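#lab-general

N.A. 3:47 PM
ok so I finally got the sequence cleaned up, no stray characters, all 163 residues accounted for. can someone with queue access submit it? mine expired

B.Y. 3:52 PM
send it over

N.A. 3:53 PM
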Amino acid sequence: AVEKVPLCELSQRVKVVEALVQEAPEMMKEVRANVDQHVSGLTCAFDNMSTVTDRLSSRILDLERAAGEAACGVPGVPRVCFDEPVDPPPGRAPEDLLGCTVALCGLLSAPCLNGRLGLVECHCQSSGRFAVRLDPQTVKKVKDVNMMFPAKCRECFGEITSG
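B.Y. 4:20 PM
back already:
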């Protein structure tokens, strides 16, 4: 069903639509300017955040490098590599390491554990491995070549005493 509209009302509606059509380009310019302003602000904020992130990453690398260089410059404190296996302590019986703090090193199957400190809990004669407690819930069984004793600190390479 088509709605019957009086001619004067129809004429009024046409005038309203014509006014909106004439105002539309100006309104669009205003909307576009607001959008451009917000995009510009977001771009600037993103650029600032990216710059801050880059500066922080660079500063962290500088601090890590400086810590390593400082430790290497200390007389009598050689740099330690935790990625390589070590020679077992000469002349020590496996039982002598029980209760000692060791640093894990040279682990190929779990390299993320290299450098972690742990406490030697027991020695398994049949496998030749030691049970090393890393934290209250984690015990790893490792060979003697994967335990550094005396343990060295990953940060300053100083000796960690125990046992």
